[in-house]
Protein 1
Amino acid sequence: MNFFKRIINNITTNYRSILLAFFIAIFAWFFVSIQIFPTIEESIKGIDIETQATEYMLQNNLQIVSYDEKTADIRIEGKRYDISGLSADSFFAELDLSSVKSAGTFNVPVKITCQSGTDYTLLSTEPRSVSIEIDEIVTREYPVTGTAPSISLPEGYYVDEITTSPATISITGSASVMDKIDRIEARSVYAGAISESHDTQSELFIYGTNGARIVNDDLILSTENVSVYIPVYKQKELPLTFTLTNVPNYFNVDSLKYEIQPSTITVAAPDDSIDYLSVLDIGTIDISDIKLNQTVTIPITLPEGYKNLSGNNNARVVWDISDYGKLDFVIDNINVINVPDNYNISLITKELVISVMGPSEILGTLSASDFFVSVNLLGVTLRDGTQDVSANIQFKGANSKCWVSGSYKATIYAEPKITEEG
């Protein structure tokens, strides 16, 4: 108790000296702090600027293409003991992309963060903002063109359109790069002579609208395994012919002269079957359809898989009948043959006017008696009443150079016979 009393008495007696000492101590501490731990400024250079796409950019397929500044310099202020040991590695610089909502070029601010949590004041940042290019990531589908530049063909062979599998591929990449793509080429790796069809491997080449090849490692292809099919055909020049139909037995076919235009076409086949063709029959012509001063057009059709290399879709048959004529004859001798037993048949048509074509000098010697007209009911479905039935017209004699032009019908009346029941 006496000890504490003495302390209290001393404080009471010497309080002025104690207060003075207290204020002197505070002043000394303040002076020492200013001298030993002053507030200073520091310049820190070469802080790497980092970028990271925002969630919005990721959801909308926006990507960073480039930005024009890669490092930032800062000036900071702080206590010497706080900031004197800081370096570029102590800070993190990043671009603020919160305003980026579409593709384009933007000026975005640079954000500086101290990674150590040191207390400091940021006085300046250089650059304060950075120009950044943003592009959209898109996926587009492109047709693939197959080529085989290193093959050679023997004479008499033909390469048809080269195809690829798959026929299209998808490419994912920057829209600005994709806009420059013009075509995709699958180039066959096969080289040398080839005389039959081949399915080959290929190398893919991407070409721009300027014709230059595009090489970009950021482009993602749906596949790089594209096969190239090289279809090889045998080709041959074949003369054209046709078949004359409904030729009467009496007619001398060799007497009818004509010219086919074109007379030949070049045909390609996917196999050796063409080796066994010497002519190409393009169709039929009914002899009764032949007219004076008139050509006949026949479409040229080929078997499946064959190719018409000449490009002629039709052939024209030009008749060499300049000295031919046409003459009409009235025939009143019409015969009905093969009448069924259960019908009574009467002929309503009493005469037919028929047109006959042939050499003019022969036509002048003919008369109505040189023709035989018959109505053949064999196989005809008869009904009660009148109906038209085809009439068959023949020349009397053989080896004639004339023929009947057109088709004719005769009208008959059919009546079922009444049978008596026993």
Protein 2
Amino acid sequence: MDNSFKLPKRFSASIVYILLMPAFFVGFSLLYNPFDILGFFNLGGFSHSFHLMMLASIILVCLALTRLALWLILRRREIEGWHYALWCIGEGFLISCFAALYTTLFDGELPFFQSLGICMKFIFLSLLYPYIFMAMFQMIRNRSSEIASRENASDDSLVKFRDEHQRLKLTIDKSAVLSIKSELNYLEISYLDGEKVRTYLLRNSMRSQEDNAARYGFARCHRSWFVNPKHIRMLKKEQNGVYSAVLDTQEAISIPVSRQYYKDLSEAL
């Protein structure tokens, strides 16, 4: 089981994160004034707006440094979810330390460690929301990417047959497909169901199956036939000069092979 927490490996993706956090901090503080942060940061004769902008600058610089370091780490290895959680806590603590140092310098009377406790409350509880939101957003992206990868992986083994209106009619493992035969405006798809040979009529043209043939390794053996080479038991030439391919089914089904396709088909076996 893959427990890695996949983050974008382009540093440009981190720039949005670096800019969002200080912007959210300022906006959240001005709108909601959590824990009377505006009243606390009336220091040294400067308004709370000035101090909030300075704190936002501290957040910006700290995140620029920590996200650069994280980007360098991600270039070499993946990290797990709990590693990322510890990294975010470390970021919050680093920001709180510089915010406490800034507060102590302006206040003059408030001890550093007392200031650190107050700043940790402001920083952690204010930035908790964007941290959680961004982590959940990344988890959703990772999950979507994982599902898409699984679907692509399944597409490599499953052949999807669509009708002339591109409606999905039949999905089958490529190893079960025996042949595809053109019948007027229909295609007769022969496939194995266990050991029994079954057929499915699909309204479409041979041209519509060219992509499937190229993707799943089906070979053209006749103007009106595609065959799965993995099910050919042998190629033979009849007394009248007609070529045919005998399939590895219980009934030893034989399908026609044109002279122009015989050489390519024999080389593919």
Protein 3
Amino acid sequence: MSQTRQVRPFGIRDKLGYLFGDFGNDFTFILSTMILMKFYTDVIGVSAGVVGTIMMAARFVDAFTDVTMGRICDLSRPVPGVGKFRPWIRRMCVPVAAASFLMYLSAPASWPYPAKIAYLFVTYILWGSVFYTSINIPYGSMASAISADAGDRQSLSTFRSVGATLAGLFIGVLLPVIAYQKTDGVEVLVGSRVTLAAGLFSLLAIACYLACYALTAERVVPEAADGERKSTLEMLKSALHNRALISVIVASIVMLLAQLTMQNMSGYVYPEYYSNSCAQSVSTVLMTAGMLVAAALAKPLAARFGKAEVSAASSAFAGVMSVITYFINPQNVWVFVGLQTLGWFGLGMFTMVSWALITDVIDYAELQNGVREDGSVYALYSFARKLGQAASAGLTGWLLTAIGYVSGSATGQTAEVQSGIFAITTLVPALGFFLLALVLGIWYPLHKKQVDENIAKLKQKHAEQN
């Protein structure tokens, strides 16, 4: 069970603080999904296949670092007056921002090819597998410590997703303006400009993390239960028998396959297929508008129909929009932007409730195992999200290589390559969206009725223990 620390009541300050936390996360995370592969292919001169493979390989490191950080969070004792998870936000905000900046230095462009690959591998591991993990796992786990109320946690999930959406808007609008230069009618990525943008976003990430630390408060303090804690191996074995956790992990992987492929390919489809990188900025603004509409609708719809039910339906809608876009094949970039916006709206419904889904899974695991291990469960979920990130990066890199994409071409891509870019941009996300709808609609067990029953059981359990 857990005790509740007597602090100020939960309110808008906590919601805004939690929003700033994901704003900070995504100043480095979204930046990597939007530009890292193109930076290394077009500026540094590493093939897309190699970049994708490195991103995939890094996930094997995450298998250890994510779970280890989750166990550290569960077994650590709260800092008096601060909490169990918030101290990590303050400790790690500068290292994660600095590691992100190092990935975008343009100096390695003149190095020997093996040295380029080694630099990418080392800096990517430091950022994603070490420092990002050490701040993201405590941040994600912190939601259950900010409040024990299910409604409060849904609000935190929505505000977290809004934070990510606003970060995506800021980066998506500003990055193309800073990073690209038009030369002889061709949009060219400039290495020094990417470095400048990365430095700016790293500084903003630190400011957002510090705002998260200052505005939030941990109220739920887990009781010491060292004798009840399972070993890491036992925890992993329990996870394999947790249908809710496994299915939500698979859902996250396929969701990120769709979302990040759309984000990764935006750096190719707009400058290469439509020769209009400015449209990418407009698309980001409209995507944000669609996500904010989803934020307004997510909570009442989830309360009425259930989080999983709404997510499955909206994901199917996004898949249909992607397929329609492929077959229409609009030659007008603004028609393409409009269709993409509708797809983003469908994705937004799941995004707004996804973090509340994992708190449902944590409740479910507590009922199964008798011990609440927020950090460990969230670590496995985070690892799954990184697998989705890597799968998208790896798949994008391999597919670009397969269609014959030429890194840093001064004359633009051939018509065949441009058609391949368009197909990847639309059909790969469509596959991810349809798989997501199937997983949430059929496999995932925590639909509305079951969630309500679990909440009632936990309330009764904690009342009896008190």
Protein 4
Amino acid sequence: MADHDGNHYLEYCITEQDTGREVLSLLRKRLHLSEKKIRSVKMDSHGIYLDDRRVTVREKVQAGQSLCVLLNDTEWREDCLIPFPMELDILYEDNDLLFLNKPADVVCHPSQGHYADSLANGVKAYFAEKQERSSIHLIGRLDKDTTGIVTIAKNSVTAQRLTEARNHHLLQKTYFALVTGCPKPEHGYITIPMSAYLDENSENKMIMHTDTENGKFAGTRYTAMQIFEGFSLCSVTLETGRMHQIRFHMAAIGCPLLGDAIYGTGKTEHLARAALHAGKLDFRHPFTGKWIQLETPLPEDMKKYLNCGRINESQKWFG
């Protein structure tokens, strides 16, 4: 539901079982809103409606009534973002979600050296152009060099539900990587614990290393899909989301990503970056419950490398 001011609402139909309960109880038990969100809608003049009537959280409900709660964030965390118009490759969009196909050499959010030209800045300009009152909540981030699907929730409730879905593996992203050699075995699960340290030899960047004593658990599943002479195309899924996890784990088993300057040998003839692409996403919509699958093809540099590769006689394809 939306009103003339561009506000977006979550609607809930009151059941017989709910009769006599306070709105506050429904916000917590039925809609599973965080206490922070409840506080914000309580204070907003357009926060909570019962049958088109503005009510407080102490209002008692009756079966058949319609409860509407404002989804738009009342505290706009990204107000400091500078709008930066850029071409966005939109894969899917609705009132709650935005999925983009990120190119290489673009950061997801403002960082050192990229305070105004990040993907978030581009989305800010996109929302402003549409006069849309939406926030920007990145659900997982991709490295600057990594291409592929980026998930953006347009409000904190959607962000909360997507994060919970990801934690329960109901939002699963599949990556595709070009790696040196061929991993053995060709199907595998890597659980090497990881820790980060500041590497003075790499412009003081944070680098991951193996830490069996104090490192954090990290789980990576991979499959060698196509095998060429000297390299392979692998599909990879993550059980955890550590920094540089795929790049580090594949290097740790002797198959660093092609083009990876940190964990591999660096640029190749056709690859000026680590060859990693977030190409597929399966998720359950946080409000409708519908399963949605998004896919985006390999970027041109990875395609070109594949086309130049010579297929090994032992090539295999795992569907």
